[in-house]
Amino acid sequence: MDSQQKIKPYVIGLDLGGTNAVFGIVDSHGYIKASTAIKTQAYANAEDFVRSSAEALQVIIEQVGGIATIKGMGIGAPNANYYSGTIERAANIAWAKGVVPLAAMFSEALGIPVALTNDAKAAALGEMTYGVAKGMKNFIMLTLGTGVGSGIVVNGQLVYGSDGFAGELGHVIMVREGGRPCGCGRSGCLEAYCSATGVARTAREMLSGSDRPSLLRELDADKITSLDISIAAGKGDQMAKDIYEFTGRMLGQACADFATFCSPEAFVFFGGLVKAGDLIMEPVRRAYDESVMPIFRGKAKFLVSGLDGSTAAVLGASAIGWDID
């Protein structure tokens, strides 16, 4: 721990979601010392949101000894630009339809340095600071949730590109002809297949495309979730296993392509789909080994996040706070 961390032993992490904004005060070991939350959508504008956030934070800041103990604040948010400290046209946040200078607004309200990045990049920083990627200089983080997010770390630094938005591996096109529509406006993206929503769509396609018996037929096809598929696979349902095989193979093939541009030490996976365990991870590893260039074969580890799912986003956001002045 450096002298600055001894003097100011905590950082604030904010996980800014479409429903809740969750704050945590975190020490250098990744322990959340105090936390609070407010509703993201309860405000007419960004100014009101920041004002209410600062009021809620004041309570937990006092619990750890006051603002003098806080080194900085990190924010993980959708459509966040690390370079400019702005959220830009975040579709799921009512007060962020334009360009909002959120980092500067929080810095002014709290009197500490503040930085932000998108949620997947924050997750990568969290793994590098507190999790299974601690000590690694080259790895790729893949978050498998409602969408597919990613954070690419090369030579110990996150890849942001020229505009702050580099590293959107969920929107690499995997199916060039006739691919599924993606929320980004294109078709055939990895996210359209390997997210939780993509897995549910694969289930519906397999159910409608054959008359094979499956426990999934007992469910309303339009309401099937990745959890339903995992439960069915755990009971030995072959179609459910095939859904994970299809998903894992595509993910493994994508990772084989990703290896060519940064030769990672590891791929780190986080999110709801990872809870399926070997059902998805085994086909990922197998497809990777079959598809990757020989020079990269056998080098990268395939790891599952070591961070608690309920606190990982706050920890990831907080990790940014250690590196700002």
What does this structure look like?
The protein is α/β, with parallel strands linked by helices. Helix content is 37%, strand content 20%. The chain is built from ten helices and 13 strands. It has helices at residues 3-7, 46-63, 102-110, 119-130, 191-194, 196-208, 226-234, 238-262, 278-291, 312-321, and strands spanning 10-16, 20-27, 32-39, 70-76, 80-81, 86-88, 99-100, 114-117, 139-144, 148-154, 157-158, 266-270, 301-304. It has a five-stranded mixed beta sheet, with helices on both faces. A five-stranded mixed beta sheet has the order 11-10-9-12-13, with helices on one face. β2 and β3 form a beta hairpin. α6 packs across α8 (238-262) and α7 packs across α8 (238-262). The two termini are 16 Å apart.
Strand content: 15-25%
Query: Which regions contain 5 or more consecutive residues with pLDDT less than 50?
Result: none
Mean pLDDT: 94
Order of adjacent strands in the largest pleated sheet = 3-2-1-4-8
State the helicity in percent bands: 25-40%
Oligomer state equals single chain
Individual helix count: 10
Largest sheet: 5 strands, mixed
Query: What's the shape?
Result: globular
The number of strands is 13
The helix/strand series, from N terminus to C terminus, equals HEEEHEEEEHEHEEEHHHHEHEH
Query: How far apart lie the N and C ends?
Result: 16 Å
Helix and strand composition category: alpha/beta
Structural key phrases:
single chain; 325 residues; alpha/beta; five-stranded mixed beta sheet; 10 helices; 20% strand; globular
